[in-house]
Amino acid sequence: MKLATLSRKEVIHSLNRKRLRLKIGGFNVCLSSPIPEVADHLLCLYGAFEVVDDEAFIDFYTSLASPSKVRRYFRAQVNFSFDGYVPFKPLPYKQASAMFEWGLNWCIANHSHHYLVIHAAVVERNSQAFIFPGTPGSGKSTLCAALACSGWRLLSDEMTLLSVADGLVYPVPRPISLKNRSLDVIRNFSSNIIMGPVVKDTAKGAVGHVRPSDESVDLGEVPAKPAKLIFPKYLENSNTDLIPLSKSRALLKIAENCFNYNILGVQGFKSVSDLIDASDCYEFNYSCLEEAVALFAELAH
Amino acid sequence: MVFITPRLALNLNLRQWDLLIRQARSANVLATLGYLLDSVGILNQIPAQPHNHIKSAQTYADRFYISLKWEIICIQEALKSINIPLVLLKGSAYFIAENNAAKGRIFSDVDIIVPEDKLLEVEAALIKAGWMTNTIDPYNQKYYRQWMHEIPPLRHLKRQTSIDVHHNILPRTADFCPDANKLLANIVKIPDKNIWVLAPEDRVLHSATHLFHEGELKSGFRDLSDLDLLLKEFSAEENFWAKLQQRAEELNQQIPLYYALRYTCRILQTPVPEKVLKVSQEAMPNIIKQTLMDALFLRALMPDHESCNNNWTGLARWLLFVRSHWLKMPLHLMIPHLLRKGFRRALGKEQH
């Protein structure tokens, strides 16, 4: 049963009773919250996700709630908690939905050391996974959103889960997080995207989320083989340049972009080396999304 | 139950696994659970989802040991110029002595014990090597130095690791404060290393006294599991139980030992010989106090997770917090101390 089949009232009811359980890629996530806006966020962006039954194993129990009764009325705040543990300082109430996305990123990045977790967007076409590692501001999410609404399958816009066991990339198809100017860029790029409400004045500026395609969500447990490793860089007015990168440079760069490279130790090095061996590596400068999408379509042909 | 009989894990359904993983995580024993299942050869027979969480925790734990090894080397290097043995306590002692209790155990500080007259020298050497004090609050500094069994924790500037330097295992003001010289006279050397740990029976007593004087029993279940694993491991040695009871007397720790044996037996079914239990019962309090302590400890020693809590758990934890202060310091010191802490917390100046 998909979340979209539930009414707003039913979603709010489930959230209140700690019963909203969603299948997100290979993870089952339970979310509880008394905040009605969270229901709107989920219905808008998570409609295609399966609701799992009461018998299922839940990987992450999460909740969004006010830190105290006072703070519900006076300069309202919200706390994210992972099964009773609160990893962050509270945020303004209006940022509850964005906090869920950040909180779930934290849960996955810190409790999935059976994967090498790379800070990278990853999309797939013709059974080839294209991995875009990038520091904030490099334009990886924007590029990822553009590819995702041009027929590519979204595996993740934020973290690439590379299995230590088989070297494949496992999806966590979640809403794509866009910031500030990227919001308008993507709105102008494609008319058939669905975007959730934009939250202003977060630590990262204005943040909005793009709904993943139904197909990406349905294939949420189907891994993909890494094919290209591309380090993007958005440069104003630049040409669309795909520059081959030596494997040794790529190895150092990718290690810097992992969340748990040092935790995996020798295994981390082995996984990164295997990834580099299996992929063609490039640096990529761009300013025009249309050209970028056309180039990658050719590359994946 | 899985901590008592690991094979029972094979009968769990997914909902039960779900709860076990949550409780184990909140008690900080998720990686330990993995080693336990592995010790009876069933780790690879459990369902994929809990397996992933356990594997993930074990990967983290393995990395932690590598850092810990390096940290111990750094401490050794820093204290090289001082002519005293490096004596590790608690988690890092279990690790270096390769005790079963170390498997999967994650903790934040390395604890060491040094003779009291060397305290300043040790502190100076550590500061020279890059550690610095965590608390600059003069009240806290004075409180530690005047009354406690350790100096304020030191944190390394670059590695952000923390070290607790003790000169005893209980505060000076505690009723059962043992003679630290007796502990140091009985240390054992780790083969091929220039590192020492407390003797096995002293390690058990320290673990017991730590747990039953501890104010915040956040990791009560983990500490209880330590005791269970230490007792099971050491009881294979000849005369262990006799030595343990003799040491408890010498170090004035009969009461903590009594509670340790009582609750490991009651909660984790640790195999303690009948006659040992009988002797330890000499330290048993009166029946009213005993009933009360059972009511408090049997709640507070469960994993700190909502599924293990009932309406009384919060109160039990609070009463044990007050009790821990009661045992550690006389009333005329405790009341001003708790008032001050309470005010500062209310003003938001302190986390705990």
Q: Outline of this structure?
A:
The complex is a heterodimer of chains A (301) and B (352). Chain A has 301 residues and is of the alpha+beta class.
**Which protein chains are joined by the largest interface, and how many residues does each one contribute?**
A-B, 20 and 24 residues
Proportion of residues in β-strands of chain A: 25-35%
Q: Report the CATH C-level class of the largest domain in chain A.
A: Alpha Beta
What is the CATH C level class of chain B, in words? Alpha Beta
How much helicity do the residues of chain B have?
55-70%
Note the beta-strand portion of chain B: 5-15%
CATH topology of chain B: Beta Polymerase, domain 2
**CATH architectural category of chain B:** 2-Layer Sandwich
Q: Could you list the spans of chain A in which at least 5 consecutive residues all have pLDDT below 50? A: none
In total, the number of strands of chain A is 16
Strand order of the largest sheet of chain B: 3-4-5-2-1-7-6
Question: Helix/strand/pairing class of chain A, anyone?
Answer: alpha+beta
User: What distance separates the N and C termini of chain B?
Assistant: 33 Å
CATH topology of the largest domain in chain A: Rossmann fold
Helical residues, percent of chain A: 25-40%
Please give the largest β-sheet of chain B: 7 strands, mixed
Secondary structure class of chain B reads alpha/beta
Uncertain stretches of chain B:
none
Shape of chain B: globular
Largest sheet of chain A: 8 strands, mixed
Describe the structure.
The complex is a heterodimer of chains A (301) and B (352). Helix content of chain A is 32%, strand content 29%. Chain A is α+β, with helices and mostly antiparallel strands. Chain A has two domains: 108 residues, no CATH class; 185 residues, 3-Layer(aba) Sandwich (Rossmann fold), CATH 3.40.50. In chain A, strands 6, 7, 8, 9, 10, 14, 15 and 16 form an eight-stranded mixed beta sheet that branches. A five-stranded mixed beta sheet of chain A has the order 1-2-3-4-5. In chain A, a hairpin with a 2-residue loop joins strand 12 and strand 13. In chain A, helix 1 crosses helix 2. Chain A is globular. The relative contact order of chain A is 0.14. The model of chain A has no long low-confidence stretch (mean pLDDT 92). The two termini of chain B are 33 Å apart. In chain B, helix 9 crosses helix 11. The mean pLDDT of chain B is 85. The longest helix of chain B has 31 residues. Chain B is globular and about 55 Å long. In chain B, strand 4 and strand 5 form a beta hairpin. A seven-stranded mixed beta sheet of chain B has the order 3-4-5-2-1-7-6, with helices on one face. Chain B has 15 helices and seven strands. Chain B has a single domain, classed as Beta Polymerase, domain 2 (2-Layer Sandwich), CATH 3.30.460.40. Chain B is an alpha/beta fold and 352 residues long. Helices cover 55% and strands 7% of the residues of chain B. Chains A and B meet through helix 8 of A and helix 1 and helix 3 of B.
